Predict the structure of ABC transporter ATP-binding protein.
Amino acid sequence: MSLPPRISLQRVCKQFAGPTSAALDGDVLRDVSFVLSAGEFVCLLGASGCGKSTILNLVAGFDQADRGEVLLDGRPIHAPGPERGMVFQQPTLFPWLSVRDNVTFGPRMSGQTAQQYLPDAERYLRLVGLQDFAEHFPWQLSGGMRQRAALARAWLPNPEILLMDEPFGALDAQTRLAMQELLTTIWQTIQTTILFVTHDIDEALFLADRVLIMSARPGRIREELQVPFERPRSLEDLVADPRYGQLKRNILHVVREEAAKSLVGEPA
Ligand SMILES: Nc1ncnc2c1ncn2[C@@H]1O[C@H](COP(=O)(O)OP(=O)(O)OP(=O)(O)O)[C@@H](O)[C@H]1O
Ligand SMILES: [Mg+2]
């Protein structure tokens, strides 16, 4: 049974104006098409500069496509909305606010009372393991803890769709794995739809239902593959599964081909 599409990109093209060299003129995205179904976890994988963040920005409504359509439930996306949350690569917490005040910043600014937002805020602080650090300031936290606070902040308004731009890219391998496990646990509990950008093939295979591999600039969806592993997943089980090595090898082959193209395309 196929689920209804929430997000749909149809032949999306995007260029950026500005002071750029001839080698970088033209489309950043060209004819990008894919759908994101309700409750799905999709990873967008591709070389640096292929347009992954550009896609997230279009879906978030921070920017507009030049051609083609970016749709939410069949309607064009023109602006950000509360049903779409974003987690950036850097946690972007306000240094002068406590963890709790950072996490509750959105609802407070939209005029909700503490009674309305605090029960959920405490729940998410517990889910990400920061209940004892709610009064701490960001500079008193480790990198992984800061990213967990950013995750709780993104989840508090209960977005139906979460857009994540390499959120664990700056973390060490152990913290990253702990965050991946935490993310899949929360995702399964509250059934958000996630579009997650990563460079990391292992991360994509651990997290995703489906992986979209992008080409080098101009970015397109070059391959799309279903990840067959059952949930809940453990890294130990995955690496022992012969399909894991095979899938990783196939993806690596495509990613390296595209990375080589993007290096050839770099200006001298
Ligand atoms: N606002 C902008 N103005 C001009 N050029 C931009 C703008 N945003 C992105 N670009 C260009 O578009 C291309 C794609 O950028 P984007 O940030 O989407 O890549 P990416 O795939 O997310 O890369 P990375 O993996 O390094 O984050 C780059 O060449 C970048 O310079
Ligand atoms: Mg990016």
Observations:
- Residues 28 and 218 are 5 Å apart (CA to CA).
- The beta strands are 5-14, 29-37, 41-45, 67-72, 75-76, 84-87, 161-165, 193-198, 210-214, 221-226.
- The mean pLDDT is 91.
- Residues 52-53, 165 surround magnesium ion (ligand 2) (CB under 6 Å).
